[in-house]
């Protein structure tokens, strides 16, 4: 293949936006993630944010002033009654999400849910049923799929440049400020449910759904909370493909020792890269990627420059996909129904950790 005659540099990784950006968005929640990611991303994309509601009205007002959001609602009902709100962006803890979504879809509003969809499968499946019964478009903010390194890897894989997939690895060794989210610290399987869920979803996006998961987790000696902060997750796919996720959130060395990497391999090529968002967190840097393929030029690593990061740029992707699905009258790629498969992976990992054995996804009910 003649490199000069191909379009290989166009890795088609930028979030795709709707034709109509004027669909009104109402945001439920004014926490750190809304301030750091949702609103900056929507501002970059040119989306129309109608207003925001939080149980802490003072916080909601402060966020609205910072981002020039016109309306601060004093209740969820008030937000849902506003005629310009077509989509509700739910950014609340998972334990509260079902109750919010039930009200949202009852008013016929489309919804972008926070991840995890729920902390138990019964509620998650009920949420999916409610959205289907209301005939609304419903998606999950599983935004790492739109991180530049992951999205460009998807393009490379879809073009067949890796051949038959054989191995997926995501490795993270950083110091995470868990004290920022004290409400998480007693949740069973916290690391799987609130962090590694992103890596499980991204690998599933690239490689498909695994057959079974074998996982383990551990605390760091002396840590002041009960949840695990070190995990290892083995994924077995049909055939010869395998996956590994390794997380350590306790690297107390200087930041030049931290790393957040991914590697995807196949019979014809390899991708390797960095997840820039976790370097110098929460500031971050742009993702990097290098790949080679026998389909392009044997043993020649290609390193295109990527623009953007997981935070906040990928948040344009999750909302943008929901808006495009509304426009095109189809299900979003990140639909609530599809996300049940990612959530089943999370619960398989948690059960595996508790029982010290591989857990087949078909066991999860």
From TrEMBL:
Top-level taxon of the source organism: Bacteria
Keyword Isomerase: no
Pfam families registered for this protein in UniProt: GFO_IDH_MocA, GFO_IDH_MocA_C3
Keywords: Oxidoreductase
Occurrences of domain GFO/IDH/MocA-like oxidoreductase (ranges): 154-271
Domain Gfo/Idh/MocA-like oxidoreductase N-terminal: 24-141
Annotated family: Belongs to the Gfo/Idh/MocA family.
Protein name: Gfo/Idh/MocA family oxidoreductase
Organism of this sequence: Alicyclobacillus fastidiosus
């Amino acid at each position: 293949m003649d490199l000069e005659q191909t379009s290989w540099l166009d890795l088609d990784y930028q979030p795709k936006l709707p034709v109509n950006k004027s669909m009104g968005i109402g945001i439920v929640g004014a926490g750190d993630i809304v301030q750091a990611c949702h609103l900056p991303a929507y501002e970059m994309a040119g989306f129309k944010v109608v207003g925001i509601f939080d149980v802490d009205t003072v916080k909601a007002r402060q966020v609205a002033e910072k981002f020039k959001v016109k309306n601060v609602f004093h209740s969820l009902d008030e937000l849902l009654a506003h005629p310009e709100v077509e989509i509700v962006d739910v950014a609340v803890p998972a334990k509260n999400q079902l109750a919010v979504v039930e009200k949202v879809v009852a008013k016929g509003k489309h919804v972008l849910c926070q991840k995890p969809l729920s902390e138990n499968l019964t509620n998650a499946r009920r949420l999916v049923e409610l959205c289907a019964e209301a005939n609304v478009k419903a998606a999950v903010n599983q935004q790492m799929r739109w991180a530049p390194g992951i999205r460009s890897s998807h393009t490379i894989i879809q073009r067949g440049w890796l051949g038959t997939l054989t191995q997926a690895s995501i490795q993270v060794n950083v110091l995470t400020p868990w004290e920022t989210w004290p409400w998480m610290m007693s949740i069973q399987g916290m690391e799987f449910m609130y962090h590694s869920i992103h890596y499980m979803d991204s690998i599933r996006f690239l490689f498909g759904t695994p057959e079974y998961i074998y996982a383990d987790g551990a605390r760091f000696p002396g840590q002041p909370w009960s949840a695990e902060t070190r995990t290892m997750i083995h994924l077995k796919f049909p055939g010869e493909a395998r996956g590994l996720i390794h997380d350590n959130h306790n690297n107390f060395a200087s930041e030049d020792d931290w790393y957040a990497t991914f590697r995807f391999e196949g019979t014809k090529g390899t991708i390797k890269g960095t997840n820039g968002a976790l370097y110098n967190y929460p500031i971050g840097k742009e993702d990097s990627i290098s790949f080679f393929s026998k389909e392009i030029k044997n043993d020649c690593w290609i390193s295109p420059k990527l623009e953007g990061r997981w935070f906040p740029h990928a948040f344009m992707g999750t909302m943008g996909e929901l808006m495009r699905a509304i426009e095109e009258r189809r299900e979003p790629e990140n639909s609530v129904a599809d996300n049940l498969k990612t959530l089943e992976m999370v619960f398989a990992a948690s059960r595996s950790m508790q029982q010290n054995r591989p857990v087949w996804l078909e066991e999860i009910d």
